Amino acid sequence: MKNSYGFSYLLPKSGSRSSKRMAFFCVYYKLIINFFTKDIKICYNNSMNDKNYEDFISTVSHELRTPLTSIRGFSQTMLASWDKLDDDSKKKFLKIIEEQSNRLINLVENMLSVTKLQSARDTIILKEINIKPVIETIVSIVKSQYNSRNFKIDINPNTSPILVDKDKFQQIMTNLVENAAKYSDENSTITVTTNSCNNCEFVSIKVTDKGLGIKEEDYDKIFNKFSRIDNPLTRKVQGSGLGLYITKNLVEKMGGKISVSSKDNLTTFEILLPSANIERQARVKCSQ
């Protein structure tokens, strides 16, 4: 049977433990969809026609269904066969549930970021930020999740502070470093470098990885909403296709630029963010 969101499931015998568990997952899924549709409809009310809105919700439903189906399936297996499963199987199933739960959380956060980007509620508070501690913290977090990758941070000592919203800058760097780790080769090195000059308007931050590579014809496409490169290798990597779309919008909202280049399986994402010189800070304060 399929519900109104295209979520397929078999109905167990009414009143059984399985039917109660199934009902819980169906209600949980429906609550999540209703949460998104309500918030998204408000944000897109004046900018999205009914067809585009329906397509967007259909995509959201599909992206949510995959991790929820995995969580439900492995949870049911463990509940029904707990005494028959050995410890290794239990740990394996719990690990899958944890991974899919994290995937769901990331998807929810990305969806909320998308709706905020399209609404007037998204505020930007520009402040002078020192790049080094932010990058070091993010690399440390990502490194703990990708033990088979090496990370190198090369901060030019002459790099000036930048004028950005700190939370949004952290989100930008997290997306770029996580993407690099996700699509890079085992035991390869992800490098984060910065560069600037005394009178430059922008500070350059580059994230480079060695992995799948990106074709030149896909450079613009990867920044589109729900866009993923159609490649057998990329299909093995879980993702919503929203990270780079969000990153590009956040960079541009703070007066910056983002670009990508790829050659010989070396891919570099470069962001240019406003340098926090005295003149620029004065202009920003006057405009606020």
Compact description:
With 288 residues, the chain is α+β, with helices and mostly antiparallel strands. It is built from seven helices and seven strands, in the order H-H-H-E-H-E-E-H-E-E-H-E-E-H.
What do these coordinates show?
The protein has seven helices and seven strands. By secondary structure, the protein is an alpha+beta fold. It has two domains: 17-117, Signal transduction histidine kinase, dimerisation/phosphotransfer (DHp) domain (Helix Hairpins, Orthogonal Bundle), CATH 1.10.287; 127-287, Histidine kinase-like ATPase, C-terminal domain (Heat Shock Protein 90), CATH 3.30.565.10. The protein has a five-stranded mixed beta sheet, with helices on one face. A two-stranded antiparallel ribbon has the order 1-3. Strand 4 (189-195) and strand 5 (202-210) form a beta hairpin. Mean pLDDT is 76; it is low at 1-14 and 42-48.
Write the layout of secondary structure elements.
Layout: H1 17-44, H2 50-81, H3 87-117, E1 127-129, H4 131-145, E2 150-154, E3 162-164, H5 166-183, E4 189-195, E5 202-210, H6 243-253, E6 257-263, E7 266-274, H7 278-287
Helix pairs in contact: 1-2, 1-3, 2-3, 3-6, 4-5, 5-6
